[in-house]
Design goal:
The complex is a heterodimer of chains A (163) and B (288).
Chain A (H helix, E strand, L loop, with lengths): L4 E7 L2 E7 L5 H8 L18 E4 L2 E4 L12 E3 L12 H8 L9 H14 L5 H7 L11 H20 L1
Parallel strand pairs in A: 1-5
Antiparallel strand pairs in A: 1-2, 3-4, 3-5
Chain B lengths: L4 E3 L4 H8 L5 E4 L5 H7 L6 E4 L9 E4 L2 E5 L4 H5 L2 H6 L1 H8 L4 H4 L4 H6 L7 H7 L3 E6 L2 E6 L4 E3 L2 E2 L6 E7 L6 E8 L10 E9 L5 E9 L6 E2 L1 H5 L8 H14 L10 H25 L1
Parallel strand pairs in B: 1-3, 2-3
Antiparallel strand pairs in B: 4-5, 5-10, 6-7, 6-10, 8-9, 11-12, 12-13, 13-14
Helix pairs in contact in B: 5-8, 10-11
Classes of the chains: A alpha+beta (163), B alpha+beta (288).
Chain lengths: 163, 288
Amino acid sequence: MSKRAHISTTVNGDPVEFLTDPSATLLDVLRDELQLTGAKEGCGSGDCGACSVTLDGRLVCSCLVLAVETEGRRVETIEGMADGGELHPLQRKFLEHAALQCGFCTPGLLVSAKALLDANPDPTETEARYWLAGNLCRCTGYDKIIRAVMDAAAELRQARRVA
Amino acid sequence: MAQLDYVAPSTAEEAVRALAAGGPAKVLAGGTDLLVQMRSGRVKPDRIVDLKRIPGLIGIRQEAGGFVIGAATPGAVIGEHAALAKAWPGVVEAVNLIGSTQVQGRASLAGNLCNASPAADSVPAIIAARAIAVIIGPAGRREVPVEAIAVSPGTTSLGTDEFVLEIRLPPRPARSGDAYLRSIPRTEMDIAVVGAGVSLTLDAAGVITAADVALGAVAPTALLVPEAGAAIIGSALDEAALDRLDAAARAACRPISDKRGTAEFRTKIAGVLARRAATIAYQRASEA
């Protein structure tokens, strides 16, 4: 009865088609079929946030989404965050603040932080910490991450005022 | 799991037929419990019936003075609904306590209910709200109070070919308020050691005319505690009424002891949280 499903979706603005086993997660397909290996598998159970992507603009764990569910949907991953060769301000601020060490959690944190700033350009530190509570980092102790996010938020607000 | 079949029907009736088509089947809403259970091997469905393409299953509508929440509506959508948050702040707070931002992007109220965890955060709040689950199956639709869904940890009263279509919150009288509180050892991303939901209505003099109290994580299922509601009806939530509420809440507890807390601790906390949730609900009702 099982058959590989043919799925048409949009990933980082590009139309994408793939064949998938119905039990495969979006994370499996991103990494193994589409070679988009930015999203990481940490826990596979929605606890760590390393696989964070957005689905129709909503922040989700791609390990908790079946790839077949993405038919006709819009997926955004870390690979779509930089504008060509130019890093997104969040990416730049993560580097400036040394907000990463091993880097495993970084793609997920960046995707989550971008979703936060898209929804709330001026978060308090408490709001940022709660928003990012589902992204675990075992290296930094989080403080540098929060500083980078708050700094990027300030820069993006400034850029918006100038524009 | 290699033989898994996935269907995404566009009507509820088709979904019922797909559930009844033979072999173990599971409904998929947000998937934040189901995918984890499939991965661990705890559930091994032959077929996944995704509800999210059925019109109305994602979304909130106002109907007959109340609210109807589609079964697959994610927590984030519930949290963004201003009218719902104004009418039922306790329900919305409880839903938004489930998991992380990522989980909120997917996890649904009906899924939290049907996963049948005794510690599910939204469940005491919707029980206290006297919410109704609309269930659909081969014989059509039926309505049950949400406290009748879970029968034991991980088990529901639903037939294998039934699913929850929507959750209905009743119309809100003037001067009503609700609240949900949970105890966890930290501030975010944890499972309730105890949860307490309270919904009440006042008269113009501030006397409680209706009150419903529900407790989570202190019994095999979340509990409606009628004695606790009765303990504060007719009062203006003075200290004596709070003491009666506290005692009634504790008397209803049948908790287990586990790594999250002993039975004795859970019982004590249930009384404390019931008092605090009632106090917040009373304040909200006074301002409503």
